[in-house]
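Problem 12. The chain below contains 110 residues. Write out its predicted structure in token notation.
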Amino acid sequence: NPSMKFVGYNIDKFDLYFLRIRSLKHRLRILPIASEDLFRIYPEGVRWHSLADLQELFFGVRKERTGQAVQEAFLAKDFDKIRSYLDEDLQILRSVYQILEACGYELAGD
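Solution.
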């Protein structure tokens, strides 16, 4: 769907790259993907901020779990824990994106 847009955090440097590489490996044609990377809220040259940092910036609280929790859950085959972790991340992203949209904020690089 050409009107579809992927929204994520560090999506341009990790997620979309990963999808492109996997599609090549499996000989799948990949269409251009429109994206909004919330990582671009930080100025150019900022080395790294986590999603927990973004959550603290906007809402004054930090998520407790890190990506390490996903690896541990995967090794333990605890897919419900992974789903819970991803749901939490998606809720943070959705909330921040809605604030940016409501304020008419354009991410750097758009």
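Discussion. The longest strand covers residues 5-8. Students who got a different answer should revisit the alignment rule from Section 12.3.
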